[in-house]
Predict the structure of DUF1272 domain-containing protein.
Amino acid sequence: MLEMRPDCERCGVDLPADEAGAFICSFECTFCAECAEALDDRCPNCRGELMDRPARVDDALARHPASTVRRFNSPPARGRG
């Protein structure tokens, strides 16, 4: 069963499990449509093809909730000087 990660690993935008617009590779790395396009539909982690993630809706989502673990890591703040 898909983990249904809640955010884009590249930009951090929310990707609700019950909406279209998320793209995944075979390892479930997850990206928004804008980032998938910028990546030429290739996962930067495994180089696998990014495909549309199916939505999980209604009773299926209630019985099998999406993950709440966020994968986006913002870049570290740059120091001064």
In short: The longest helix spans residues 33-38. The mean pLDDT is 92. The longest strand covers residues 22-24.
